C-alpha cells in the first residue's frame, strides 16, 4: 500500500469526530489483554473511565452473537454457555426501575439493597413474582415477605444450572445515572454492592457491575461489612499504548472498504509483521502473539508515520499520541485516539514531506490532538453534562495558572450558581461545595481533568486544554 | 530615586517605542557599554531633524548614571566603525522597536551566549555535558556514556572542557603517580599535552597536527571489540609545566593567522575540529565546566551539540538555569536554534525513590526555569506545531532523564572499581541516559 492508500483507509476505517456513541461492529471488537478478566464471569466489579468500554462490553455480553464471537475468538468458553440479563442501563428499557422510580423508592424509605435484590431475583427467577404485582414497591414487598421461599428457589436454580453447566449473569451499567444527586447515587450504589456480595455465594448465578472509578473511590460506597471482599475483585479497564494501537489495527483490518482492508492485511503480512486470524473468513483479528509484541507493532507504525516526531527533540511517534491524549491520571480514551489518527490522515494529504513520504505527517499527528480534544469534550459532556459550564469561563487562560486566577474566573462567571441551579441527569460530584468555587478544582482533580502543581498552581492536560481554548505559557514570541 | 542597572535599559526601550520619530530613520544601535552606560549610535548618512538638546536632558532624567557621558546620540559613518556595532554577532533586535534598530550589550565574560553557531557543516555528532553547579555527577555520567558507546563498537572522542578543575583525565586515564625515579618526563599512560596547551601554542602558530596528536590518549578501559575511547585531558602529563599560566591565557581573543580577530569560542571550535579530524570519531563527548561561564556559553550555544544539562532539584539550580535561559531570550534566534537539543538530567537520583513521583516533582520544578525557552501560545492562532509543553509532558525538554544512583558509583574510578563497569550495574543506574543518547545518535545519523 502506498501512503495515500493508507491515508484513505484511515479515513474510511476510523471513527469521525461527529458522533461519540460506541459502535457495535463485530469487526471492531478488540480485547486488550487486561480486559479478559473484565469479561470473565467471576468478576463482580469492572471499573472504567469514560469511554474505556464499559457499555461496549455490557452490550457485547448481552448480545448472543457478539458474546459467542468473543467466546470463540478470544478463547472464553464460559461465555458460550451463559445467558446475560441487563440489571440496569439508563440508555435502554428493561426489567428494572428507572431513575425516577428509584428516586420515589428511596424517598419512601425503601432499603436500596432490597430494590436490587428484587431486580436480581426477578431476573434469575422470572416466574416467581406473581404477575399481577406490577409496581416496584409491591414486588419488593413481596420478595421481602417471601424471603425463605425465594432463597430456596435461588439455591435450586443454581443447582440446576450447575448440572446443565450453564451460568446466568446479571450486568449493571450506567450507574452514574442512578439518581440526580451524588448522595442518592452513592446510597444506591452501596445497596447494589451489598446485594452483589450476598449473591457471591451462588456459583452459577453471577452479577457484574460496570462502574466509573470516581464512584467506587467514594468511601461512602464501601461503607458496609466485608465490602473489601467485593472491591478487591474489581478489574480496571485499562488502555495502554499497545492496546490503543491494537484497536487501531483491528479497525483498519475490518473496514467497510473490503478491498482496502484486504490490502492492508497483506501490507502487514508482507512485512512479516502481523498475522491475522480469520474467525469465519469475514472478520479478522490480531493474533495473540502480535497483541503483546510492542516492537513489531511499533515497527509497523513507524512504517506508517516515521520513527520520530522530527526536530532534534525527536520523540517517538509511537508514544507521542498516547502521551498527549492522556488525562491527568494517565488514561487515554480509545475513541479520542482513533479520531486523532483519522484526522491526522486527512490532514496529511495537504502536507509536504521533507525526505521520505509517510502516510501520516508528524505535524498532522500533532494537529490530531485538537480533534481528539473535541471528541473527548463530547464524551465528557455526555457523561458529565455540567462540565461545559466549568470550562467555558477558562477560555484564554495561560497555563499553568495560579489557583486564584482560575477560581476568580469561576466566581466572575457565577459558575457555581449555574452548576447548582441547572438540573442534570448526572449528579454533581459531592466535592463541589455550594459556597466555594475552588471546590470545583477538587472535583476536576479527582476526575483526572486537572492537576495541581507542587506550588499550588493549576494545570490542565492537553486533552481538555486544547478544546477549552486554554494556552501554554512560554517566553518566545511566535513568529507570524 | 536612584536608577539602577536593571530597569535602565527597559525604561529607555519603552520610551523609544513611542518616540521613534525623533530619531534618524536609518540603521541605529542602542549600545550598553562595559559600565552598563547607554548611548545611541546612528548611521551618519541619515539626519535627524527633531532630536534636540532637550532630549539629551530627558535621557539624563530617564537613565541617571546609566546615561553615557557626552552626546547621547552619536552619528558614525559605516567606515568609521558603525558597522562594527551594528553587525556585532551578539547585537539583537528588540520587540517593539523599528526593524533596523539593534541593541548591543557589551559583556566582559560569557558574551558568546548570543553569538551565532560556529560549527563546521560536517562534524561527528557532539554531546555536551553541562551542569550549572558542580558535583552533580556530570563527569561520571559522561565516562559511563563513553564506555556504553564504545561497547557498541564506536570510536568515542572525549574532551575535558573543565579547564578550571579538570577531572575527566583522572577518571579515564591511569591514576596520576608521583615522579618516577627512572627519569620519566611525563605521566605514564597520559598524553604529553592537554587542551590548555592548544590555546597557548595556537597563539604563536604552533597548534599543528604534531601537537594535536600529542593531546590524545586511548583510555585503558577495557572494551571488547572495535570500540575505543580517546581522551583529551585539560592538562597533559608532562611533569614540568605551569598550568596556571597557560590557563590564564586561554580565554584571550586573538587574531587568527589571517589576522582576523577571533573570540574564544571560535578558537575552541577550531581546536575541536582539529581533534575530530585527527581521531575521526563516531561521536564526541565534551565535558563542559559548571557555571555561567565562557566555556559553557560556547559549548551550549555555538558547537551544534546535543546539550545534556545536569541538575539537582534545588531552588538554586532552577534559579540559575532560569537566569541563563532568560538571558538567551533576549535573542529568540538563539533559543530557536538551541532549545531542541537540550535534555535535562537528574544524575544523583536515589535509586530507592518512587520513580514516577520523583520524575513528576523534578520535572515540575524544572518547568518554570524552562518556560523562557518555549513558544508563547496565543489565543487567536492556535497551532500544534509550537514548541510548547505542559509541566508533566513526557517528551518535553524539562522532563528529566534520571540516573538512578547506586552506591557502586559513589566514588567513581572505573579503572580501580571494576564493578562500576559491570554491565548490569551500569544498566540499572544509567539505562535512561544510555537510551536517550542512542536515540539522539540515531536521529543525527539519519538526518
TrEMBL record, chain A:
Q: Which domain of life is it from?
A: Bacteria
Q: What is this protein called?
A: ATP-binding protein
Query: What is the phylogenetic placement of the source species in the record?
Result: Bacteria, Pseudomonadati, Pseudomonadota, Betaproteobacteria, Burkholderiales
Query: Per the UniProt entry, what species is this protein from, by scientific name?
Result: Polaromonas hydrogenivorans
From TrEMBL, chain B:
* Organism field: Polaromonas hydrogenivorans
Q: NCBIfam families attached here?
A: AAA_KGGVGR
The protein's superkingdom reads Bacteria
Instruction: Provide this UniProt record's keywords sorted from A to Z.
Output: ATP-binding, Nucleotide-binding
Tell me which stretches of the chain form a coiled coil: none
What is the name attached to this protein's record? AAA family ATPase
Amino acid at each position: 500500500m502506498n501512503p495515500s492508500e493508507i491515508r484513505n483507509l484511515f479515513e474510511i476505517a476510523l471513527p469521525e469526530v461527529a458522533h461519540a456513541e460506541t459502535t457495535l461492529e463485530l469487526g471492531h471488537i478488540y480485547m486488550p489483554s487486561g480486559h479478559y478478566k473484565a469479561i470473565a464471569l467471576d468478576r463482580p466489579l469492572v471499573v472504567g473511565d469514560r469511554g474505556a468500554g464499559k457499555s461496549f462490553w455490557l452490550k457485547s455480553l448481552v448480545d448472543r452473537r457478539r458474546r459467542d464471537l468473543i467466546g470463540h475468538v478470544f478463547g472464553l468458553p464460559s461465555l458460550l454457555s451463559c445467558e446475560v440479563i441487563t440489571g440496569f442501563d439508563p440508555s435502554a428499557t428493561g426489567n428494572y426501575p428507572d431513575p425516577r422510580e428509584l428516586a420515589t423508592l428511596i424517598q419512601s424509605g425503601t432499603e436500596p439493597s432490597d430494590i436490587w435484590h428484587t431486580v436480581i431475583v426477578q431476573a434469575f427467577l422470572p416466574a416467581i413474582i406473581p404477575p399481577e404485582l406490577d409496581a416496584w414497591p409491591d414486588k419488593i414487598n413481596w420478595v421481602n415477605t417471601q424471603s425463605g421461599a425465594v432463597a430456596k428457589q435461588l439455591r435450586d436454580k443454581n443447582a440446576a444450572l450447575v448440572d446443565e453447566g450453564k451460568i446466568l449473569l446479571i450486568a449493571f451499567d450506567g450507574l452514574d445515572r442512578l439518581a440526580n444527586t451524588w448522595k442518592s447515587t452513592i446510597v444506591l450504589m452501596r445497596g447494589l454492592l451489598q446485594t452483589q456480595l450476598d449473591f457471591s455465594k451462588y456459583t452459577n448465578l453471577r452479577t457484574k457491575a460496570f462502574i466509573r472509578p470516581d464512584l467506587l473511590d467514594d468511601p461512602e460506597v464501601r461503607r458496609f461489612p466485608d465490602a473489601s471482599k467485593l472491591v478487591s475483585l474489581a478489574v480496571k479497564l485499562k488502555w495502554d499504548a499497545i492496546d490503543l494501537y491494537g484497536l487501531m489495527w483491528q479497525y483498519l483490518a475490518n473496514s467497510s472498504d473490503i478491498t482496502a482492508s484486504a490490502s492492508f492485511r497483506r501490507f502487514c503480512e508482507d512485512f512479516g509483521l502481523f498475522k491475522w486470524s480469520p474467525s469465519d473468513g469475514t472478520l479478522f483479528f490480531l493474533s495473540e502473539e502480535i497483541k503483546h509484541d510492542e516492537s513489531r507493532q511499533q515497527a509497523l507504525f513507524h512504517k506508517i508515520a516515521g520513527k520520530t516526531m522530527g526536530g532534534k527533540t525527536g520523540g517517538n511517534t509511537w508514544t507521542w499520541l498516547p502521551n498527549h491524549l492522556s488525562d491527568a491520571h494517565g488514561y487515554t480514551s480509545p475513541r479520542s485516539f482513533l479520531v486523532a489518527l483519522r484526522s491526522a490522515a486527512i490532514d496529511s494529504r495537504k502536507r509536504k514531506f521533507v525526505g521520505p513520504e509517510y502516510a501520516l505527517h508528524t505535524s498532522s499527528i500533532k494537529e490530531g490532538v485538537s480533534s481528539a480534544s473535541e471528541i473527548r469534550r463530547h464524551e465528557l459532556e455526555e457523561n458529565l453534562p455540567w462540565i461545559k459550564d466549568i470550562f467555558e469561563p477558562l477560555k484564554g487562560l495561560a497555563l499553568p495558572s495560579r489557583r486564584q486566577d482560575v477560581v476568580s474566573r469561576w466566581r466572575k462567571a457565577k459558575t457555581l450558581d449555574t452548576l447548582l441551579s441547572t438540573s442534570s441527569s448526572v449528579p454533581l460530584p459531592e466535592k463541589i461545595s455550594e459556597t466555594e468555587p475552588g471546590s470545583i478544582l477538587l472535583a476536576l482533580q479527582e476526575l483526572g481533568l486537572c492537576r495541581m502543581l507542587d506550588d499550588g498552581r493549576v494545570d490542565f492536560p492537553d486533552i481538555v486544554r486544547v478544546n477549552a481554548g486554554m494556552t501554554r505559557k512560554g517566553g518566545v514570541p511566535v513568529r507570524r | 530615586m536612584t536608577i539602577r542597572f536593571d530597569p535602565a535599559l527597559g525604561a529607555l526601550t519603552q520610551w523609544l517605542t513611542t518616540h521613534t520619530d525623533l530619531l534618524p530613520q536609518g540603521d541605529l544601535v542602542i549600545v550598553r557599554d562595559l559600565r552598563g552606560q547607554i548611548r545611541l549610535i546612528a548611521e551618519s548618512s541619515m539626519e535627524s531633524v527633531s532630536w534636540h538638546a532637550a532630549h539629551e536632558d530627558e535621557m539624563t532624567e530617564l537613565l541617571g548614571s546609566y546615561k553615557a557621558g557626552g552626546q547621547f546620540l552619536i552619528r558614525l559613518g559605516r567606515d568609521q566603525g558603525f558597522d562594527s556595532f551594528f553587525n556585532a554577532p551578539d547585537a539583537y533586535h528588540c520587540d517593539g522597536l523599528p526593524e533596523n534598530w539593534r541593541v548591543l550589550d557589551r559583556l566582559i565574560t560569557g558574551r558568546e551566549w548570543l553569538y551565532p553557531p560556529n560549527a563546521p557543516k560536517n562534524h561527528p555528532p557532539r554531546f555536551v555535558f553541562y551542569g550549572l553547579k558542580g558535583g552533580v555527577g556530570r563527569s561520571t555520567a559522561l565516562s559511563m556514556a563513553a564506555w556504553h558507546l564504545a561497547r557498541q563498537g564506536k570510536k568515542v572522542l572525549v574532551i575535558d572542557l573543565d579547564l578550571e578543575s579538570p577531572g575527566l583525565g583522572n577518571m579515564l586515564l591511569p591514576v596520576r603517580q608521583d615522579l618516577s625515579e627512572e627519569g620519566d618526563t611525563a605521566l605514564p599512560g597520559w598524553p604529553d599535552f592537554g587542551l590548555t596547551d592548544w590555546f597557548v601554542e595556537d597563539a604563536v602558530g604552533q597548534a599543528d597536527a604534531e601537537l594535536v596528536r600529542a593531546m590524545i590518549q586511548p583510555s585503558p578501559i577495557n572494551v571488547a571489540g572495535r570500540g575505543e575511547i580517546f581522551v583529551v585531558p585539560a592538562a597533559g602529563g608532562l611533569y614540568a609545566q605551569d598550568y596556571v599560566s597557560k590557563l590564564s591565557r586561554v580565554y584571550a581573543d586573538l587574531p587568527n593567522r589571517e589576522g582576523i580577530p577571533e573570540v574564544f569560542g571560535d578558537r575552541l571550535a577550531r581546536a575541536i575540529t582539529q581533534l575530530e579530524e585527527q581521531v575521526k570519531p563516531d561521536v564526541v563527548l565534551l565535558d563542559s565546566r559548571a557555571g555561567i561561564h565562557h566555556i559553557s556559553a560556547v559549548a551550549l550555544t555555538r558547537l551544534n551539540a546535543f546539550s545534556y544539562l545536569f541538575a539537582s532539584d534545588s531552588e538554586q539550580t532552577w534559579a540559575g538555569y532560569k537566569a541563563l535561559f532568560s538571558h538567551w531570550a533576549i535573542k529568540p534566534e538563539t533559543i530557536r536554534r538551541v532549545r531542541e537539543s537540550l535534555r535535562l538530567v537528574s544524575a544523583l537520583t536515589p535509586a530507592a525513590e518512587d520513580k514516577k513521583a520523583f520524575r513528576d516533582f523534578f520535572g515540575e520544578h524544572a518547568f518554570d526555569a524552562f518556560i523562557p525557552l518555549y513558544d508563547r501560545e496565543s489565543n487567536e492562532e492556535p497551532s500544534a506545531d509550537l514548541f510548547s509543553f505542559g509541566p508533566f509532558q513526557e517528551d518535553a525538554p524539562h522532563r528529566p532523564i534520571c540516573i538512578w544512583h547506586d552506591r557502586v558509583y559513589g566514588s567513581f574510578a572505573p579503572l580501580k572499581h571494576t564493578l562500576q563497569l559491570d554491565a548490569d550495574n551500569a544498566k540499572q543506574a544509567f539505562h535512561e541516559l544510555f537510551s536517550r543518547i542512542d536515540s539522539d545518535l540515531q536521529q543525527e545519523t539519519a538526518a
